[in-house]
Each structure stands twice: as C-alpha cells, then as structure tokens.
Request: fold
Amino acid sequence: MNAIGRKQYIIQKLQLENYVDTNQLASELSVSSMTIRRDLNALSDDGLITLQHGGAILNNGSLFEFNMSMKNEKRVAEKMALARQCMEYVHEGDSIYLDAGTTVSCLALLLKEKKNILIMTHSLLAMNQLSDSKNLHVIMCPGEYRYDSQAFMGPLTDDFISQFKIDTLFLGVEGIDLKCGFTVPNIADGATKRALVRAAKRVICMADSTKLDTSYYYSIAPLSDADLIVTDHEADPLLLQRYANAGIKLVAAAQP
Reply:
C-alpha cells in the first residue's frame, strides 16, 4: 500500500474510532512505526488530525477538508458515473463552467469528445484534462492559487467571472443540506462558488452521496439555487425522496 492508501486507511479508521495507535497501525499495515509516524505528521501538517502521545485523533469540525491528493483517490468509479450522467446536459454551442474539484474534473475528461463548446474554469485539474484538446475553446480564469483545491480563486477570480454569463455551471461542493444549503470549509473557495452561481443561467451540482446531509463552515447558496443535483447510485432512496419532497430536483447516476 502506498502513502496515499495508508493515509486514507488512517482517516477511515479515525472516522470510526476517533483515535489511532501508531504501533497498532504499523502492525495492521505491515510497515514500520517510523513510516506511520511520517504519515501521521503529514496528515497533521494538512490539518486533518491532531497528534497525541503514541497516536492521533481526528479533526472533524466544519473546517475539516481532505487535501486534493486524497480526494483524487476516493470513489473514482462513482465520480466517473456522475460525469457520464452530466454529459446529457452539455450541447453543441453551449458555454459551460467547470468548478474546482475532483468530481467536476472527471467531466472535463469526457468533454474532450465534444466540439464547438466554450469552457471556462479556474481548476488546474480540469485545465490539465483539457490541455490537449484541439476541438474546444477553453478560458482559464486568473486568481491566487490554492494548493488544497488545486485551483485559482479569490477576488481576482471572482471579478473575472462577473464579466460573463454562463449557460451551465457544473458546481462542486463539500456539503449538501436542506437547511444549510451548499457548503464548503474554505471561505475563498466558497466566495468564488458564490460568484459562479450568480453568473450562471443554469446550475448543476455534482456531488457523490457521501456529501448529502452534511454541512461545512461556509455557505454558498440555498439548494433552491441549483436546477439539478446529480449524485451516485448509492444514495439512500428515502433520502432522495426527502429532498424531492422539499422541491429539490436530484438525479442518481447509473451504477458504474
């Protein structure tokens, strides 16, 4: 198991037990205690855990956020299924915006099959996927680079976005909740998403089912501001019905 896999294992164990022991982890993962200490130090530097004597505890408040390297490895098949579902809402002649996030960047990969589409983005992940396409018009937005999002954001990005009218925004978020709406842990990220929602004629939120009924520090917009939420096949049908009863249009993608 590589370093990213070990870190995911550690976080998942912490989410279940709230505390991990260094020597026990070393035994479970068949690596040295020094290797585990390096992994724990890296997770601590990212703000995900707090080190304690002989182990660590999870930081799980409303500011909790996985870094992008860990997000890239999570639920890949489900994210691609979401992206395939969203391709139904992209048509020739559209201007679309791809928000930051690993789920939305999966859509960028599929969009390379299209022609005569204008794509805007501030996401480095999405731009990397689109960089070798000769059939698309792509605009990269300026701004201050945020490592955890692998995207450019901030006032310069928000002002640039305000100059355009976007046909369809594909929005990425961390939390979706009937009361709190769409939320993220980071203020700069959330402010840019707010600017995007204001500029878009149609908003489609892409979010796997683990993000439903969760909320974070910064509120972007009420769920009613989105025309559609696309999630994965693992979403609880009773949960989907509760959202539908509240007037929220939500579609579950086919099983990957």
Remarks:
- The CA atoms of residues 159 and 195 lie 8 Å apart.
- The mean pLDDT is 88.
